[in-house]
Structures are given as C-alpha cells and as structure tokens.
Write a structure and sequence with these properties.
By secondary structure, the chain is mainly α. It folds into two domains: 10-56, no CATH class; 61-116. It is built from four helices and no strands. The chain has helices at residues 10-18, 25-33, 35-56, 65-115. It starts with 9 loop residues before the first helix and ends with a helix.
C-alpha cells in the first residue's frame, strides 16, 4: 500500500479505539509507530468510556428549572407583543402622515390647475 499517512489511518484509529473491527495491517502498523495516532486512539477510548459512564448516570434537573424557562418564554412573548404594538402604532402614524401629505399635494395641484 505504500506510506500510510495519519489521514489514511483514521479508520484504523476508530477501529482500534472501539475494538470492534480489526484495522488493516498497514494502517495498524502506522498507528503503532505514530505517536499522534496513538494519542487519538487513547483520546477516543477515554471518550467512549466517558459516554458509557454517562449512559448509566441519571441526572436530576433543578426543580426550579421548568419555572425559570417558562418565565423566560413568557417574558420573550410579552416583549415581542409590545414591539409589534409599537411598530403597528408607528406604521399607522406614518400612513396617516403620508395620507395627509397626499391630500395636501392633490389640493395644491388642483388649486394651481384652476388658477391657470
């Protein structure tokens, strides 16, 4: 197979870490001689053990967590509703102003047309 690089040995690192599949001989030889790949195997094994330990651990959430989350959601909804109300008020005012200006321009235009 030639020279095996760390990138090419990645499948061997995973298989050696979990011990489920045998690695190809060239990849296993690379891992056996490469400190970087050996460190990856050890890191993966530690990670697998930590995850396996978490599987058996039962975490109890803080009893106040649900109330805190619901309060935060309520506050967000109230802020959003207030923002929408302010936006509607501003848009309504802008529309009224635009309408007034349009009426004034139309009247002004009619007045100039009648004067000619």
């Amino acid at each position: 197979m030639g020279v095996v690089r760390c990138e090419d040995a990645a499948p061997a690192v995973a298989s050696l870490a979990d011990g489920l599949e045998p690695a190809r001989p060239a990849q296993a030889a690379h891992v056996g001689s490469c400190l970087r790949c050996q460190a990856e195997v050890l890191r993966d094994r530690r990670m697998s053990r930590a995850l396996a330990d978490l599987r058996d651990e039962v975490l109890q959430p803080d009893p106040e967590l649900l109330g805190t989350v619901l309060d935060a959601v309520d506050e967000f909804v109230e802020r959003r509703a207030a923002l929408r109300a302010r936006l509607a008020y501003l848009l309504g005012g802008a529309a009224a102003t635009a309408g007034t200006i349009a009426v004034m321009l139309v009247r002004r235009g009619r007045g100039e047309a009648l004067a000619s």
